[in-house]
Amino acid sequence: MRAVSANLFAVLFMCALASVFYVWSALENRLERHKRRFSVPGGGSFHQGLPADLSAKTFRALLAVRAAQRPHLGGRLEARNLTDQTVSAGSRNYHMNGDNKRSARREGPVKLGSPVEEGIFWSEWLEDLFPEGFTEEYARDWRERARTYRIVKLEPGCGRISNQLATFADGSKACVRYGINADQVQGETLTYYLASLLGITNLPPLILSQLNSDSEQWAAVRTRIDGLQWSDRAVVSLTEWVSNLTGVVTPAPLRQESSGLHPVLAELRNKTTAELLELMQWTDLIIFDYLTANFDRLVSNLFSLQWDSRVMERDTNNLLKTPQGDLVFIDNEAGLVHGFRVLNMWEKYHNTVLSSVCVFRKRTTQRVAELHRRRDSRKRLLELYRDSEPLSLELGFLSEEHAGVLQDRIDRLYKHILHCKGKYSQL
């Protein structure tokens, strides 16, 4: 009888612990989503009035799975990055491509000719209106300044409690990510530089920084760092903090009830120029997430359809938008390293998302074709990473296995583009 009572007590105790963990996870998820209701001009907060996507935590939990091995060239230091933002007078506004007249042209109906050329490519006149995003020159300038500025304040405001919103001495801000393990910061950082290779400029600039006890950059917030229990000499990432961003809902052509985004003129001509420009950015995003195997965006929504039929009607994970409609790809920690490690779990969903798109930016496909032809994606990514990031040796690089996975995905993407071209080039 005593044995039965003891076993029953043990079961009840475990159930209680599970309940506490569930409630804590839900609260953390709600807090993170609350932080993403970004301020808009005139005050208040942006909120679609839709229920919170409680399934998002399922995929974030997978990020906490520790690697069976750590494929590093250098050290073992940790960090992650996310650009969750709220408006501040000290923030730096996102830079737009073109003047007010050009921006006005975005809002009107399509009057400048076909939105598609050569069968599967967005037209050149749309490229002329395409947002510059975070240009190479702008990102380089920000990185140089961010490495020298002193951090004078750390406070909550970038998603998880372990992350912090940093204020520099000049009043500008950055999101500091202190990661669960090195997979996240390595994936986040290498994903950023892969975007540079592809000419995709939707990612905010990023640097790495080391929490040395004698670092002048962190000296003013040393007490705060100790309180956060961040490890000395840990490598964290800092990403430019961008004001006045809102959530993004998956566009209708990419939802489950649609046949996908194809170069069908009858459908595309019904779109406004602004809608076409957003779809162009989505096609870059889908290519990008396929190459990096990032499951924590559209792919996770596709998976969630099994129990949540309305998930596509809510904001997409880790995707934000400026008031002018330019997309900002944030929190890319699931890409490359971690995404490749759990690829078997998600590959069928990655393939489904990729197969739903058959219209692309020509400039992006040209970069993909070059990486396919030269078969040197590892070499070029490593060179760019080491040339741009002083702490690259501390953080390490892709393993040989994962570098091979990246090249294989480039080759598969190239074949998909050829398939689309063969199917639609005669239209």
TrEMBL record:
Q: Which cellular component appears as one GO term in the record?
A: extracellular space
What species is given as this protein's source?
Answer: Seriola lalandi dorsalis
Region spans: Disordered: 88-111
The answer to keyword Transmembrane helix applying to this record is yes
For this entry, the protein name equals: Four-jointed box kinase 1
Which InterPro entries has this protein been placed in?
FJX1/FJ
The biased composition feature labelled Basic and acidic residues covers 98-109
| Sequence intervals crossing the membrane | 6-27
Keywords of the record: Membrane, Transmembrane, Transmembrane helix
Biological processes annotated in GO:
cell-cell signaling
